[in-house]
Each structure stands twice: as C-alpha cells, then as structure tokens.
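User: Modeling request: complex.
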Amino acid sequence: MRRPYIIAIVLLTSCELIVDVEVPFEQKRITVNSIFSADSLWSATISLNRHILDDSPFEKLSNATCILYQNDIAIDTLKHLNDGFYQSSERKPVAGNWYELRVVSKNHEPVKAKSYIPDAAPILGLEVSTGTTVEGMPETTYRVRFKDDPNQINFYQIVMEVEDEYIDFQTGLIVTSRRRVSIESHDPIISSENENSYDGILLKDVFFNGKETEISFKTMSYTNSTATFIMLRTLSADFYNYKKTVDLQGITSGDPFAQPVNAHNNVENGLGIFAGFSTSTYELRSPVPKPVILSISTLTGKPGDRIVLTGENFHSYPHNFSSVIFRTVQSIAYAPRVFFYDENKLEVTIPQNAVTGKLYVRNSAGYTVSDFEFEVTN
Amino acid sequence: MKTLLLLILTLVLFQSHGQKFTISGSIRDKASGENLIGSTVFNSRTLQGTTTNTYGFYSITLPQDSVALRFSYVGYEAGSLEFFLSKDTTINIELASAAQLDEVVIRGTPDDRIQERTVMSTIDVPIEQIKSLPALMGEVDVLKVLQLLPGVQAGSEGSSGLYVRGGGADQNLILLDGVPLYNASHLFGFFSVFNADAINHVELIKGGFPARYGGRLSSVINVAMKEGDDKKFRAEGSIGLIASRLTVEGPIIKDRTSFIFSGRRTYIDVLASPLIKNLTNGEEQAGYYFYDLNGKVNHRINKSNRLFLSAYTGDDKAYARSKYSYTLASRSSESRDNIGLGWGNLITALRWNSILSNKLFSNVTATYSRYRFYVSANSRESITDFDTTRTTFYHTEYNSGIRDFGIKADFDYIPSPKHYVKFGGQAIHHRFTPGVLSYRATEIADTTLGAQVTKAVEFFAYVEDDFLITEKLKVNAGLHLSGFSVENKFYSSVQPRLSARYLISPSLSWKVAYAQMTQYIHLLSNVGIGLPTDLWVPATAKIGPEQAFQSSSGLAYHWNDNFEISIEGYYKKMTGLVEYKEGANYLNIESDWQTKVETGTGNSYGGEFFIQKKKGKVSGWIGYTLSWTNRTFPNINGGKTFPYRYDRRHDLKTAVVYKWKDGKDFSFTWVYGSGAAVTLPQSSYSQSSFDQHPFHRGDQSIQYYGDRNSFRMRAYHRLDLNYTTTKKTKWGERSWSIGVYNAYSRRNPFFIDLTYDKAGSKKFVQYSLFPIIPSIAYRFKF
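Assistant: Request completed. Predicted assembly structure:
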C-alpha cells in the first residue's frame, strides 16, 4: 500500500545512473550447508561464495576435508560423493548433543561451525475438523498438542506432508509419493509472519514455556491423499534464525526502501548454516483398509456395458464410495456411473475411451490393482 | 530621535520606596502591530539589558538614576529614549521596519548579541530571509531553510525531515504557537506544513535546551504565527507551480482586536482530473492535493491582558475512483471502487497573556491537537440477472493517530536585570491509536484488528533563571521535571539544564551547556524517509521512554558589528531508541507493535562552525559540520555499533541573499554533504537446499550484506538559485520570483539498487530524484 506511491513518484521524476560501487571482496570464502537430524546420515554441501555482481554458478569444493567433532574429539570424516556433497558412511547425529564441523580446503581460510540437535517433543494429541473457507472451499483445521521443555528456550516448526498414490500411465503401476503442503495459522500464540507457507509454522515457546500447549493451523482439504503426516520439529536456535532471516531477506530484497536483512550465519570465518533439528511425526491414515477385488461379473465388455465387481472395503472414509478406474491409451478413465454400491459390490459402466488392461479400485486408503486383465471390445 | 519612530509612552505611577524601579512594556512592529520577539532593551548608562519574550513583553529593573534606553531589533530602525527613572514605568514602543524606509544601510545596533546570550546551539532565521531563499518548485518552506543550518541533516532528497545532531525525525519538538505538531510534512515529506506568509518568527534549538522545553530529545523548533495587523487590512499571496496561497489580516476593532487568516492549496488534481476523466471515458478519477489553513484572532482585553485563539488545520488527500459497467444479454453489472489515503493535523490553542505586575508576566494556554492517517478502500458491485439484483460490497480502513488535550501555564519573572526567571508547567492527555484495521463486507460481521487504543498523561514542571553572576559570567540554570503515566506504569524524569557564557572580551565569549531530555513517545518508521505511514506510539510498560544527555561547548564572536560567528563542539548520548526489528513490517498489524521493535542506544558527536550575517546588502550564512553518529542495538547488526543512516562526516551549507538594486534580489544556496550510509550486498552464497520447494531446489542464493550501513553513497551537492523582482504598483506590491533547483543538475543519490543492464550483467544502479527544476512564482501584497 505504501510503496506504489513512492515508486510512482520515483518513476515520474527519477533518473538512473549506473555507478561503480566498490565492494570489498578480498577472497572467496567457504560456504557450508549442513542441516542434520537424528534420522539421517551426516551430510554437508561445501561451496564458495561469489562477488555480488557475479552470476556464475557457485563453485563447489571437492577437495575439502570435513571432520566432525564432538567435545573437541574427531568422531567422523565426511566423504566427498559428488559436486561438493559430503556424507558420513554410517554415523548419524544423536539428539541432545552438540557437534562441530571443521572444513579445511587449500587456498581458503579454514572454517568451523557448532550447533546442537535438540530433543524431539512428542505430539500428545491431534484433533481434526473440517469446514469451508470464506470462498466456499473445503478446508481442514488441525490442533496439535505437545508439551514444551521448561529447561530451555525452544524453537518449533510445524510442517505437513501428504502421501499421494497415483497410477503411472506408462507402466500401469501404483506409485506412492510424499509431498510437503502449505499450511497457515491464525493462532494468536504465533506472531503474524505465518502466511500460507510451504515452510509451515515457525514459533518460539515465549507464550507457553514449560507448559502443554495446543497450536491450530489449517490447510485446504487434500481429499485425494492417502495419508497425512503432521511433523513437529524442534529446531536448534541456529536453524530457526536461519529460516526466519532467509525468509525476511526474500521479502525485503526487492524493496530499495526496506532495511536489508542478513541471513543468520553460524559458520566462523565462512558462510552458511550448520544446524540440527529433531522431528516427531503424527500420521493420519484412513481407518478403512485398501479395497480388495475378489471377482468380476465378466472379463470382456465394450464401452457403455455394465460390469459388477465384488470384493471388500468398497467405501471411503468418511462418506464416499470407491471409484473404478480403467486404463486408456494415454491415461486413465474413471467409470462414469455407479449403478449399485455397497461395501462389497460395485456396478459401473465401461468408459468410452477405455482400453484393455488391468482395473483399479480406489478408496480413501489408496488404489488396488486387479490381478486380471479386462478386455475392452468395440 | 528619528522622526519615523513612533513612541507611545504611558507612565504609570506606583508608590515605591525602593532605590530601584522597573521599566516594562512591549515592543511591536510599527506598521502591523506584530510582536517583535527577541528585541533588545539596553541601558547604555549601566550597560544592562534585556530582551522581549515570545509575546513581545520585556521588563527591566534599574536603580533610580537617568537612563538611556535603546530599543532595537534586527532589520528595524532602533529607537532611543532618555529620561530620569524615579518610578515604575511602562513603555510600549513600536519600531519601524528598515524595509519600509528608503534604502538605508542600517548600521549595526547593539542587539541581543550572540556572545552575550547564555544559550548556545540556537539559531534564528529572519522570516524575510527565509522568503528570499530559493525553494523547491517555488514553494517557500520553513523547515527546508532550517535544513540549511549546521548540525541539521535533511534526510533523503527533497524531504522536509530534520535530523538534528544525530537524532531521529521524531525527536524534534515542533511547536506552532506553543502546540506540538506531530507530522509537519505534506506530499510524502516534500513540503512542510508551514505557510511562510502566516509566520512571524522561527527559532531552532539544537542543544543546551532551556528548562522550559522538554518532551523530545534533539531539537526545539519554535514557530510563532503572526498575530494579525491591528491597524489596517492587508493581504498577501502567491501563485506558484505547486500551490497558491492567500493571507488576509486586519483589525476587527482597531488597535484592540485583529485577525489573520491564511490558506494554501495545491491544484495539480484540479488540472489533471478532467484529463484523466477524458482519457478513461469518465470511468476513472484520481488526484492528490493538500491544503493548509491558519487562523488567529487576538484581542486586547485591557493593557495587561490579551487573549488569542489560534487554529491550524492541514490535510493531504489522495484518491482514485473508478466506475465500470457492462451489460451482457440479460445480465447487467455495475461496480464502483474507491481508494483513499490521507493524513492531517488539526491544532487549536486558546491563550491568555497577562501582565500580572511589571515584573511578572503570565501565559496560560489550553490546546487541542490531533493527527491522523488513514488508508481506505471500498468496492460495491451490483449484478442484475433478469429482475433480481445482487449487491456485494467490502470496505477496509486502516487508521492511526494521536489526539491530545493540554493545558500549560508559563510565567516570566524579572526581579532585577541580573535575573530572568521562568517557571511553569504543562499537562497533556494523549490518546494513541497505533494502527487499527477495520473490515466490513457482505455477509461478514464487522471486524477490527490491530493494537488497542492507549491513553496516557504526560506532564512537566520547570524553573530556570538566566542569572548574570558577574559582568563576565552569566548562567542559565534550570530544572525540568517530567512524568508520564501509561498502562498503570509511571515514568518520571529529573532533567538538569545548564548553560553559561563567560565573556573573554566584549565581543568574544566562551559557552558551555549541558541538557538532559526525555521523550515519552516514539515514531516507528520502517522506511526512514518520513512517510505518513510512520506510526506514533507511546512509551508503554514494556517499551520505556527515550533519553538524551548532551553537553556542548564553544566560542561565540561578534565580528565587525555584522557577523555572528560561533564554533561549537558537542557530544550526545541517547538511550531507549526504538527501531523495527529486522524485516518487520508496519502493515502486518495483526500483532502488537511492541513485539516488532528493538530498543538500543545512539551517540553523536562533532563540531559545528557557523557564520551568520542577518542584515545588509549581502546577508546569509555559511555553516560547516563535522560529525559522527552511531547506533547500537543488541539485536540488530549482531549487536555491533553501526553508523546511523544520516551520519554525514562533512556537511557544508551556504545561503546568501544579495540585494542587488531596489526591489531586485538574488539569492543562492549551496549544500554539500558526504555520502549517506547505506547497506549494500557484498557477495552471495549458496542457500541450503534442505526444506526448499522442489521448484527452487539447488539454485537459490543468499545475499551477504556485511555490516549495516557500511557503504557510503556518492557525495550530495546542489546549487539552488533565485531571483526576485519586486515592484510597487497602484494597488500595492507585486513580485516575480524565478528559481532553479539543482542548477547544475547534479545526479544526487536517492537510493542504490541491484539490477541487470541491457547486456544482462548485474550492476549497481543509483537512482536520483530531482534533476534541474525551474520554478516561477508570482507574489502580491496590498
């Protein structure tokens, strides 16, 4: 609201002048990017920074020595795999510990970074309710309950992932994938910087230090997903500050009147981030198992014919019934009309563009593929 | 004595048995009856003197003897009077302006000389000089003239913000007839609200604040409005490129009641509006304007009582309206959208001056003031399908503001020529509305978001004495006590004030000063260029008041009866300063502002050199400042001290008015300031790909900015010229003023941005705001 006016004034009257600003840039510095959690191997990406007016890709370092320390004792060396990516062979971080990563590379100043991996905060409960947005779109509200550790300042991140199943058109196989979805919160406990965000909700324990708390957030309803994962991460201060400041830099960098924000950097003599986090996950799955196809009324038919499938779990949670899917030349087709249904029986018509192939039945828990092929005649 | 001098002598008898008697009265302009603030009364027999206060009142107590009084004021013909003092005497005197005499080069008169005053760091600029200097687009601007003084930074190009001795734009106590003004700018800071035609006197205090002032850290800007000619009707005005002004004044009851009324309005919207309407077939309308209205009525109840009622109101308004309609088959639709933005001040003051005795003068003022800012948008759409009409609407409005009620009493007590005592107090009731968003729409209940209204009471009491200890040593010592009550929290502060001068020789003195100031309100600004969206908030239970400690020392020299020269050094420390957290945004008003700010400290130190010539064929000044200004916030810049945005190492300012011939004046100003401090990215590095959206993964970079404000932009310099030719006409006087802003079109830096040139390589580009801008204005007076 504020900027368009200023920018309008500037555009009306301004003149541009390309100036040479002398940027002090003595030598390139090592950038360390290493985020670690208890579930994964140690890894780090090592690269070099570049002059601000330089737009070439970041130079990756393949000859660096990355040694991991715990209480000043070297515990592991990360090996270079490819393109500046280093990984431990088997060692994983342990929650509650401090670690230090020291990186040495010829011709560059050695760097080191220290951070810890906080303990996970178990999710004590989750409530789900559905409603509609102002625009009439379905949305789901979640209330996640957990207890804050009173002994320290804690930083949390709540993210949500959904599991989707889809049919690979080429192979006909059922593929499972997991993706992050955006969530937003208007919970007064959270400061206002949480828009509908891919990065979820970031919060500090200032308002609930040492107490059990409940955070609410919402998403659009992902009715086609087979599972939802609510992940409560406890972040190290470094990771929290890094996320916050990188985000702020993104917001302010296009605005010449805003005060620029430096990203949080905990790499001594260098740049980047070395920080840990822990996760506790709450999984929501359909209470109904996947459908089971037991028999079919006929194994051939032409588009428009009716077929009857018998089996189990032909209903979805909470109130829909299963769909029957046929293959087509390029894609798949849902059987258009269900004439009869119950938990064990579905009667549908064969779609117009269906071709010979396996049949699929889908309920809220996912797809089931038939073990027979259905022949479509013309 | 001079025949043109008119003396009114009123002798009042008092029974008195003492050896000393008091002479008191007022000094006013002969032609208009305006008070001459700061005129000198000097007895050449005893070498004692005094000056008139803000209301033109003076009082001097002398031994029973013959006296030779001299009454003088800059730019006015002095008056003298000799008589034998044997009783308390009232002398009301009127002096004639030198401009009204035939061209005579006035010899210097023993004014209130710079070396003899105890106050330091104080500059007043004659209003005629302000009007003669070049102005952006021909709009005479009082605050922009103050920017030409040493120790004052102008902020960004074209803005009327004042940054005094390293202080912020919110740390200036801008008093219009004694009432504080919160936002003194129009058009996003390009013009200030003061209409020079309605102003009598302007004074800037940068340090060594007398005890009577308080509530802001860095400066006091005293603007006194004219009182209105009580002898005859007069009018003056101007027609300029931006705005036109008209001032009328005159007696309601001759010599008893007078009024002044002054207005100004811009008219770009009036000219542009039909154009926009035509171009859009009447569908769209947009415009912007601002106006000011000043009015004052003053009434002499009797010889010792006067009543004043003054008011100022000014608003900025920007608007855009659109109206669209279509008809498609059986459906017709009509929609109207309105967007508005505005801000403005309203202040009123009712003042009662009373001469309680010939040694005691009182001034009681009741004030009301409010400042508000709003942005609003509303939309209404009606869709008619066959016979049914459905209307939807929404209305959002964002408001912020302050409303004050105040009462103030000031007393001047002059027991002897060795003492000038001032004491008094003030109480203000504030009501802060720091950003409220309200939303109303079809089928949605009214919603209001944002910070709650905060009420607070601020008060202070003071006493000071300007005390001549020996002929050489004079001290102004005072105490200012203030308090602020907010949210069940009470803040109080005891502020000692001291300034002193020691005469090394009759024309040279050494001065020292120390002042402590407390400020109970903060201005939240996330752009730092003084926009109306900046938010005024009170000190609260969580965020305390700001404080400043300033000491200064320097030499003052009166050279050749014509030049006032001062050289000063100062050191200022400020605590409790407030800034937005990194990246916080005012529009995000869902959360309380208190969670979005950081507090820290600042310091500023440096030296100022100033040479000023107030009268003569050539008048003006040269000011040079060498200064350092820093800020330290525990949570900003990693806790490291950084230069303030308006930290300027070298700063040189020149303002010269040359009276070439009768009615023909040349003037120029030239300013030079070393580059402003900015933050620029130095390098970029790879962003962690963890948690990144798959769409961006692997190609994101982070910019590394180094320390805050660690770069300097190019030096700023600018030459402005003005030529005015004035001619007497049958009906009065008219003048043409031709001016050039930025005469050699220096591309001064406004901001630097990172961008790509045509060849696709990354470059830093500096944007400038104003190239050479000519202007012309027509002024008249009758």
